[in-house]
From TrEMBL:
GO terms for molecular function: acyltransferase activity, transferring groups other than amino-acyl groups. The keyword Transferase applies. Keywords: Acyltransferase, Transferase. The keyword Oxidoreductase does not apply. It comes from Methylobacterium frigidaeris. Pfam families: Acetyltransf_1. This is N-acetyltransferase domain-containing protein.
Length: 158
């Protein structure tokens, strides 16, 4: 099964898929409707700037996962930027190591931009991120749940 990584800037037709995934996995029931998330995803896909940038993993040319580079992702921590955000693998494609590919693509985008550090927060994937080089800096309560705040110091762009 051939794999490829594309961005929604390169393939704006994928923005509807990534918006649905983002809404269903992270935003449903939090006051933002799917239409609002789709509009924001389309604007981000068309934007000329480096953020937001969504990397999509394709397997046999079908989208199976994503990860984004975002300026902000955690309201209580506006001091931290930028973020690895919205890491998602479609349920039918899980358990195959697919999350690592779009994460690596976002890290490569950040390195190319000269970004020294990326941040993320997670409730359930701390072990996965630790295995690929991220380290936990703290745990904190947010929205009545406990999360890990993690960072990744990136090598300089050569």
């Amino acid at each position: 099964m051939p794999h490829a990584i594309v961005t929604t800037t390169e393939r704006p037709d994928l923005a509807a898929v990534t918006a649905r995934w983002r809404w269903e996995a992270f935003m449903q029931g939090q006051g933002r409707g799917l239409a609002e998330v789709m509009a924001a995803e389309s604007v981000g896909a068309a934007g000329p700037g480096p953020m937001p940038r969504t990397c999509v993993l394709l397997a046999d040319d079908a989208p199976v996962g994503m990860a984004s580079l975002a300026a902000h992702d955690l309201d209580p921590r506006p001091d931290l930027t930028p973020w690895l955000a919205g890491v998602f693998v479609a349920p039918h494609a899980r358990g195959r190591g697919h999350a690592v590919r779009p994460v690596a693509a976002v890290e490569a985008e950040a390195i190319a931009l000269g970004i020294p550090t990326l941040w993320l927060y997670t409730r359930s994937a701390e072990g996965l991120y630790a295995r690929i080089g991220w380290r936990t800096t703290e745990t904190f309560p947010y929205r009545d749940r406990l999360y890990a705040l993690m960072r990744r110091d990136l090598p300089e762009h050569v």
